Amino acid sequence: EDQVTQSPEALRLQEGESSSLNCSYTVSGLRGLFWYRQDPGKGPEFLFTLYSAGEEKEKERLKATLTKKESFLHITAPKPEDSATYLCAVLGFGDSWGKLQFGAGTQVVVTP
Amino acid sequence: EAGVTQFPSHSVIEKGQTVTLRCDPISGHDNLYWYRRVMGKEIKFLLHFVKESKQDESGMPNNRFLAERTGGTYSTLKVQPAELEDSGVYFCASSRNTMGGYTFGSGTRLTVV
Hints:
The structure holds 2 protein chains of 2 kinds.
Chain A (H helix, E strand, L loop, with lengths): L2 E5 L2 E5 L4 E8 L3 E9 L6 E6 L5 E4 L2 E5 L3 E6 L8 E9 L8 E2 L3 E6 L1
Parallel strand pairs in A: 2-11
Antiparallel strand pairs in A: 1-3, 3-8, 4-5, 4-9, 6-7, 7-8, 9-10, 9-11
Chain B lengths: L4 E3 L2 E4 L5 E6 L6 E7 L5 E8 L2 E4 L8 E4 L6 E5 L8 E8 L7 E2 L3 E5 L1
Parallel strand pairs in B: 2-11
Antiparallel strand pairs in B: 1-3, 3-8, 4-5, 4-9, 5-6, 7-8, 9-10, 9-11
């Protein structure tokens, strides 16, 4: 069965203090790895899809990278509005389309 | 475009009662998914519709759960009879294609007491 492990569980940053979140995965052939952001009381909000090792995607202060075993979400010069839980999910070739396997998430708090 | 709408946003029911959750996907999205997060656990897949057909219902925990999507538009998820372990947040999502850029609703928080 696919496994997704995210670390750290929680991260507290000062505004402007860059950091990285980790998503390690085990899957029988990767169709795609997905990053979502979730705010309290809301559903996950799609950020990126990565398909193959070496791929990178960027959006504002966020940059996602992918290797054969893990993905990183880099937050550059974060602002308080970047505070959220960041979720990683994978879709393997052994899974049906639509059956994402989520990690537990990393809760990020950015203080002014 | 309007987002994915779920209601109710909260539901508190007694063990043994029936609850029906509803999801209205984004118009034109043939793919509709149900996921749930129980306390302290990851978000887990329940099932996937393509239009009105169940593509994969392997995540449905047992036969107390019944999902329907009549006419390929909105979907309902019925829990009958509800048990304490069914408490959690039920998310619905929809998409045009299946490569993960799903739009999630805000969820229904179900509490079974």
